[in-house]
Amino acid sequence: MRVTVLVRPKAGILDPQGEAVQGSLRKLGFAVGGARVGRLVDLEVDAPSSQEAKAQVERMCHELLANPLIESFEIEVDGT
Amino acid sequence: MTGPTVAVLVFPGSNDDRDAAWALGALGANAELVWHAEPALPRDTGAVVLPGGFSYGDYLRCGAIARFAPVLEAVRRFAAAGGPVLGICNGFQILCEAGLLPGVLRRNRDLEFVCRDIRVRVERVDTPLTARCEPGQELTIPVKHGEGSWFADEELYGELEAAGQLVLRYAEDCNGSVGDVAGVCNETRNVVGLMPHPEHAVDPLLGSGDGALLLAALVDTARGRTLTPA
């Protein structure tokens, strides 16, 4: 089962990378009011149901894919 | 008489391991390089150093992958038994990701890779790294990192400050670290991490000898443990 994880810098946490991207876009002439840069992880998960897949990936996020001190995550299971 | 054994861990991508071993050797330790795949530390290990570098290419987050190295399990046992463990730069990042130290190291506020001598102030002298220092003493030690901005949220920061776990602070602007924190320790004070590189400052000929003050204290602690086994 295909599962996508989106990891974002938590709201309110300084994201210098996003600020640099925003600054660069503005230099190109785009009126960008804000940019935050996170990470996307596509996973192929072996699970009997999408609920089970989501539960597994949630554990993966807590244990490795995100650092809860500074990052939030969102899980999308394909077909749901 | 040979000095106490200090294990210097080597991960794929470590690059300050030899400098650390050289500096520890110059300060009287018997420094042994230990490959990350080793399941155990040398039998008479008195202290462990996780050196700087880019372990596992800094994949995912700095230090996030290194914590799965077999040798880290041995380090966890060593630390749990009260053994002194020091993480320098990437080693600090690894210890934070492994949950052995509080907080996390983020990308520097100004996105710059900072590479220069910097002044740090010793806040706590009751750790194996700072035992030879005076409270409030300023040291000049080089930093070289792109992701060394230490972060803890307000609640955690307050707890750490109250518990005296904020060991070193930058005495000048460096990277946007919360509270200008440059080094922290764990609750039991035997695990310490810092972003500056004491191993690059053990000889005035190289700009500063202040790092020797820190590493010599670690060697003292290692020697104490070797003489009186836990």
Structural summary, described in words:
The complex is a heterodimer of chains A (80) and B (230). The model of chain A has no long low-confidence stretch (mean pLDDT 94). Chain A has two helices and three strands, in the order βαβαβ. Chain A has a single domain, classed as Phosphoribosylformylglycinamidine synthase subunit PurS (Mth169, Chain: A, 2-Layer Sandwich). Chain A is elongated. Chain A is α+β, with helices and mostly antiparallel strands and 80 residues long. Chain B has 230 residues and is α/β, with parallel strands linked by helices. Chain B has one domain: Class I glutamine amidotransferase (GATase) domain (Rossmann fold, 3-Layer(aba) Sandwich), CATH 3.40.50. Helix content of chain B is 24%, strand content 26%. Chain B has a nine-stranded mixed beta sheet with strand order 2-1-3-4-11-10-9-6-7, sandwiched between helices. In chain B, strand 3, helix 2 and strand 4 form a beta-alpha-beta unit. Chain B is globular. The model of chain B has no long low-confidence stretch (mean pLDDT 95). Classes of the chains: A alpha+beta (80), B alpha/beta (230). The interface between A and B is medium-sized, with 10 and 17 residues.
